[in-house]
Structure formats: C-alpha cells, structure tokens
C-alpha cells in the first residue's frame, strides 16, 4: 500500500503561493513578531539560505561500531545518541504510515508549511491566550532536528530548539526551501532517522532495537503505532514504564488516524487496538566496558583504540573533537588483534584467571613492518566494578583507594597516560643500535670489570649483576650476558644522547618529570644510566620498538586497527603535511636506522635467548637461554630487571612477531616482584611466540654484512 493517504493517492494537491503567504502571515499572528523587522530582511535571508544549504547535506549523528578482526563480530559501540541510519526502503511501510498519521496527516499535500494547520493552530492559540497548539509539519520538524544535529556550539543548539517567533518563521522558510530540494520520501527518511523516541533511541533503527529488539523492516502496525506515538512525548507515552495506560491510549490514537487516512481497515485497526503492547527491550552496548564477557580481555585493546583515536588529527583539532567524531561519526572500526596470538597471550599471562596479587603480568605483541598490534593481555579483568578490589599496595595512597586487581580499566599495557615501568636492561638495545648505525662493528670490544667508574658521567660507577661477567666483551657477549660495564663504555663512545634520541625515534615517550628532564637536550649527554633502563616505558612501546629492529630498522607507528571506514563505506583518510591523502588505518612507517645496523643488532640479540648468531660468539652463556628451545625457531630478545627486581621484563622477537612482557606492581613501583618472578615475563613471551606462530612457516633472520661484523 502507498504511504500517501487514499484521499491524495494518484493526484497532487496544488498549493498556491498565495496560500503559503497567508499561512506565514497567520503564523506571524499566532506567534507575535513585534520584534521581528521582516522575514525579507537581507541578513535574515542570507542566514536562512546558509542554514538551508547545510541541511541539504546534513546527516544525523550515527553510532560507531568496533568489530573483531573478522570484520563481522561486533565487540561494542560508541555513541552519545544510539543511532544507525536506515534507508526508507529498509523500513516497514507500517512505520512510515504511522509517523505520517501521528505527526502530519497532510504531509503529502503541503509543500513544507501547511496553511490549514497554521490556521487551526492560530484559532486554538487565540482561544487559549497562549501557545497551546503548534503547526509544525514533518518537514519543519526535520528542519529543527537537522539544525540541532548539525549545531557546532551550545548557542547553535539553543537557537535550533528555542520557542521564539523568529525561530518559527525561519523554520517555515527553510521548510519551503527544503521541499524544493528533496522529495517527500527523502524528507521522511531523514525525519525517521532523526526523531527521538526516548531511552537514548535516536532514529527508527535504534527505537526498533531498544523497544522491540528488531529491525525497522519488521515492525508490525501495533509496534509502529506505538513508536510513532512516542515522538510527541517520549516520557509520557513510554511503553517500558510499569503503567502502559498512556502509551496504549496514544498508540490507539495513531491507529485511528491510520484508519482515517486509509492505511488500515477498520477491522485491522480494531484487532490491533485489542492487543497489548508487547515490548522486548534491549540495552545496546556502549564503550569498552560493554564488551561481551567472551572477549573481556579485549577491553584493554578497545581502550587503546580510544586513546589512539583521541591523538589522531584526522578526526579533529583536539581530543574533544576527536572523541565527538568517534561517538557521532558512524565509523566501522576493525580491531587489529590476531585471535590466535591473542588467545596465546591471554593463556600465558593468566589473563582469564582471577588474580589476587598486586603484581601485574602483561604482554603486548606487535607485527614488524606494519606496527599492527596483534595481542594485548594482562592478568586482570577489564571492568569498571572495583568494589571487590582490596586496598592499594601503595603505603602513601589514600586508605580508601582501591587496588588495581582483580578488576581495572587502567591502561596497564600502554597507550594511555600511565608512565609505565622501569624496563631495566631491555634499554641496552638503544645505545647498541645507535653505535651500529654510527658505524661501530659488532666486534667492538671493551675490558669490562665488575665495577666501572665513568669519567664521562661524573664519576658514576655502576657494577655488573655477577662477577662472572668480568672480562673482555663484544656486542654479542655483552648483550647476551647483559654486562652493565660494557654498555656504559659503549655509551660513552657514541654519547648517551644518541641512544636517547634513537629510543624516541622508535616510539618511546617520557612521561615522568624526571625522565623528561634527563631526556632533554641539556641533560641527555650526561644520562649515563639510560642504558640500564632507569626510565619508565610501556610494553606497547617496547614491543613496537623491537618490532622495528625485526623489520630491518623500519619503524612503524603502533596501529590498533586493521581498517576504519566512514558511514558511506569509504576508508577514513587524512591529509599529510605534504598534501597527500592517506588512509588513517594504513601503516605509517619510516626507516630509522640502516638495515644492516638493525640486522647486526638482531644478531647480537640472539645471544640472550640461547639462539646462535650468524656471525659471532655469545661467550658461553646468556640470561634467557631457554627461549630458543621454547619458541622452536630463530628468536632474538633481551631480559631486563631493575634495582631489587622491582620489575622484570623480557622483549623477544622473530621475523614475524615482537612481544614485550613485564611483571610489576602498577600501584607501588617500590613493591619488588623479587628474583623468583624474573622468569615470568621470559616464559610469557617465549610461550606466546611459540603458540601464536604454531603451524606457520619458519622464517630466518637476515644475517648482517661482513663489514658491520668487523
């Protein structure tokens, strides 16, 4: 059946210009315009024309969706107004007819402003000595909603909805103009996607979901009439309230109107009115805390997506604008996690176990050559509910402050504002890589005593963890055994600032005041302790930095998504400083050190893992010699512990994946994990690389050239 009333079907009802003018005049009488100097004033006309141009292309806010890597499984949504744009062809005729019957039964007869409706409102308002009845057509209501949805400031929102005569007349003018530009079906489609139905349901898709758990295409006459009746007053006619009396009365009114317009037969309307309103409410997921329990541990990756998004200039000039785009832009975002690698990471850090320990064991896995994050897991439950968490382990914290376990949403793995954890000797990679890139060979040797007093660093005298490290070391043996005194001497040769700068190029950021000061140009040259990992870092940063070494020195910014598409299905893009348009979700890579230097660093980094380098000797033993046997393929990496083993780390990589794991107390960095737990991150990385790469072909590292071996 056509949506047009039977009385209007098959013919058009001409609306004379004189009638339109009379209608506007009546509106001017009904809404006193003593302060209005004339609708035809030049400034007003220009303002109306400008607004009308905006409305021609304006689209309402739309929910953004976060998908699992398969691109079809919805993990959660982001919205302020739950809404999904739906074409008129995907809506049941019942809802189209019901909304016309409820809100504007002369919709197909007028051209934006209904003179008869204006006259009726004028009479009613005159009798009541006020504004007891409006004269807004569906087109005028759409104009008002579109102005509200496209508003950029609170003032524009207020102007769109304020009850003033000037606003009403401008609204009429724009409605007349819009009807010249859009068809009735286009206006009805936009209206049904903009209207508010209550319970945060904006648009008919959201309303059908929230009230009946179905799509707009399957709405029955009873359901359609119920929803159409809500637009007038969502709270008064709410069918989800305990008393459905008002909702039923309003629904029956709409059904009667549908009958009068020929949309329903009297018998069908009678049957419909005899039925109770059977709702089937749904509460749509919103934000990361609403991710299904099956994917609970993915909440940390979801949270990282939000933090990453808030830093992307492609989505706005500041964090507020970017997050507004996320919640209103209708994006389709596909997460970059690899389910197989993620499952391995979760298993190997005990992410799904309830942990009653202040020590967080987390892991991040990045893909060399793309920067895509393939796994993020920590032995915590992603939840806002911390009511069962105990008190913080930090003795200086407020006694009422809750601990970070078992539940938390804190970005313990990186990507947020937390500084991270001291990463110990994993930082030895940066001065070594800087030295190699500067032309120093792998065979560079120093006599490395148990303790070394540095003349460059003002008499600073670090020592080794063991007397067994004493002797002449090269980069292979110095890195494999983690010889502090070797790396202080190496750092002296190249300058500590070069190691600091390289770490920054590989994505590390300094978040504490101490780290910022030490990394500053004025201080970096004297930051000798940098090579020992006294700075805070996150596993996200460390995994991605080491991934660049696995990719022959090509650093790629950390990327938590596989794709981002706009509401129209096109890829989300941004324009570079050079004017080139690029997809936001495409890898952003650059060569940080020359490929031979990176390959040489990898050759030395095979020593700590028990692997065999292509060119040199590891010196007989290493700090994590079990890793090669566990992974079962070529692997490089580095252990790291801090003073008193307050935290312990391992960063390991193959040609395919790079993983960084830590164990520490996020609440209290002085709460030492102890030597007994230093193997925990080693095992987490080794087992995750093993399990995540199971069944894939084994790839070899490219050996360094003879020139850099020395």
Describe the structure.
With 710 residues, the protein is an alpha+beta fold. 38% of the residues lie in helices and 11% in strands. A hairpin with a 6-residue loop joins strand 17 (636-641) and strand 18 (648-653). Helix 1 packs parallel to helix 4, helix 3 runs parallel beside helix 10 and helix 16 crosses helix 18 (484-494). The chain is elongated and about 100 Å long. The chain starts with 16 loop residues before the first helix and ends with a helix. It comes from Micromonospora humida. Keywords: Carboxypeptidase, Glycosyltransferase, Hydrolase, Multifunctional enzyme, Protease, Transferase. InterPro entries: Beta-lactam/transpept-like, Glyco_trans_51, Glycosyltr_51/Transpeptidase, Lysozyme-like_dom_sf, PBP_transglycosylase, PCN-bd_Tpept.
Architecture blueprint of SSEs:
Layout: H1 17-30, H2 42-57, E1 64-67, E2 74-78, H3 93-103, H4 115-128, H5 138-150, H6 154-161, H7 165-181, H8 184-194, H9 204-212, H10 221-230, H11 245-260, H12 266-274, H13 299-309, H14 319-328, E3 332-335, H15 339-349, E4 360-366, E5 373-378, E6 381-382, E7 407-408, E8 421-422, H16 429-437, E9 446-448, E10 471-473, H17 475-481, H18 484-494, H19 496-505, H20 513-519, E11 536-537, H21 539-550, E12 554-556, E13 561-565, E14 573-575, E15 581-583, E16 589-591, H22 595-605, H23 627-631, E17 636-641, E18 648-653, E19 658-664, H24 680-692, H25 706-709
Parallel strand pairs: 1-3, 6-7
Antiparallel strand pairs: 1-2, 3-13, 4-5, 4-19, 8-11, 9-10, 12-16, 14-15, 17-18, 18-19
Helix pairs in contact: 1-4, 2-7, 3-10, 3-11, 5-6, 5-7, 5-8, 10-11, 11-12, 15-24, 16-18, 16-19, 16-22
């Amino acid at each position: 059946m056509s949506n047009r009333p039977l009385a209007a079907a098959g013919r058009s009802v001409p609306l004379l210009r004189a009638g339109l003018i009379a209608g506007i005049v009546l509106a001017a009488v009904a809404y006193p315009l003593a302060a209005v100097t004339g609708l035809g004033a030049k400034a007003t006309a220009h303002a109306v024309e400008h607004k009308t141009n905006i409305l021609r292309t304006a689209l309402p806010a739309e929910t953004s969706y976060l998908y699992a890597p398969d691109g079809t499984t919805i993990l959660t949504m982001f919205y302020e107004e739950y809404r999904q744009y739906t074409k008129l062809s995907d809506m049941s005729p019942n809802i189209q007819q019901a909304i016309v019957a409820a809100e504007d039964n002369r919709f197909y007869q007028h051209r934006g402003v209904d003179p008869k409706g204006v006259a009726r409102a004028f009479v009613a308002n005159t009798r009541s000595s006020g504004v007891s009845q409006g004269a807004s057509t569906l087109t005028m209501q759409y104009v008002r909603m579109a102005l509200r949805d496209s508003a950029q400031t609170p003032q524009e929102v207020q102007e769109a909805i304020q009850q003033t005569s000037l606003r009403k007349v401008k609204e009429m003018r724009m409605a007349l103009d819009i009807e010249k530009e859009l068809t009735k079906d286009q206006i009805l489609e936009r209206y049904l996607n903009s209207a508010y139905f209550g319970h945060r349901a904006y648009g008919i898709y959201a309303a059908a979901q929230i009230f009946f758990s179905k799509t707009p295409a399957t709405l029955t006459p009873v359901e359609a009439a119920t929803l159409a009746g809500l637009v007038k007053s969502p709270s008064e006619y709410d069918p989800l309230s305990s008393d459905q009396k008002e909702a039923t009365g309003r629904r029956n009114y709409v059904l009667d109107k549908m009958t009068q317009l020929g949309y329903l037969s009297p018998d069908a309307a009678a049957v419909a009115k005899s039925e109770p309103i059977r709702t089937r409410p749904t509460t749509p997921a919103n934000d990361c805390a609403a991710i299904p329990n099956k994917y609970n541990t993915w909440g940390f990756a979801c949270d990282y997506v939000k933090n990453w998004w808030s830093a992307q200039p492609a989505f706005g000039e500041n964090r507020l604008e970017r997050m507004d785009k996320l919640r209103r832009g209708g994006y389709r975002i596909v997460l970059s996690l690899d389910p197989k690698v993620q499952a391995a990471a979760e298993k190997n850090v005990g992410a799904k176990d309830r942990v009653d320990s202040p020590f967080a064991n987390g892991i991040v896995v990045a893909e060399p050559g793309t920067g895509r994050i393939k796994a993020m897991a920590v032995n915590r439950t992603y939840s806002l509910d911390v009511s069962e968490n105990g008190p913080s382990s930090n003795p200086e914290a407020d006694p009422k402050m809750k601990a970070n376990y078992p539940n938390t949403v804190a970005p313990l793995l990186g990507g947020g504002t937390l500084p991270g954890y001291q990463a110990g000797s994993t930082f030895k990679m940066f001065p070594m890589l800087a030295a190699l890139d500067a032309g120093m060979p792998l065979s560079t040797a120093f006599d490395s005593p148990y303790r070394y007093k540095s003349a460059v660093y003002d008499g600073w005298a670090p020592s080794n963890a063991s007397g067994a490290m004493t002797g002449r070391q090269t980069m292979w043996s110095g890195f494999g055994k983690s010889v502090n005194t070797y790396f202080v001497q190496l750092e002296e040769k190249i300058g500590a600032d070069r190691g600091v700068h390289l770490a920054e190029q590989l994505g590390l950021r300094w978040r504490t005041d101490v780290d910022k000061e030490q990394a500053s140009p004025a201080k970096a040259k004297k930051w000798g302790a940098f090579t020992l990992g006294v700075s805070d870092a996150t596993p996200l940063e460390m995994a991605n930095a080491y991934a660049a070494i696995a990719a022959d020195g090509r650093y790629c910014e950390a990327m938590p998504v596989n794709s981002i598409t706009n509401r129209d299905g096109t890829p989300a893009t941004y324009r570079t400083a050079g004017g080139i348009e690029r997809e936001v979700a495409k890898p952003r890579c650059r060569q940080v050190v020359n490929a031979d230097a990176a390959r040489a660093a990898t050759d030395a980094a095979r020593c700590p893992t028990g692997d065999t380098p292509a060119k040199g000797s590891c010196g007989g033993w290493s700090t994590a010699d079990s890793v090669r046997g566990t992974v079962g393929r070529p692997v490089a990496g580095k252990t790291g512990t801090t003073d008193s083993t307050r935290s312990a780390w391992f960063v390991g990589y193959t040609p395919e994946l790079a993983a960084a794991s830590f164990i520490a107390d996020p609440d209290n960095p002085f709460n030492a994990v102890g030597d007994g737990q230093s193997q925990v991150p080693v095992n987490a990385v080794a087992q995750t690389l093993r399990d995540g790469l199971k069944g894939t072909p084994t790839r070899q590292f490219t050996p360094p050239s003879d020139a850099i071996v020395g």
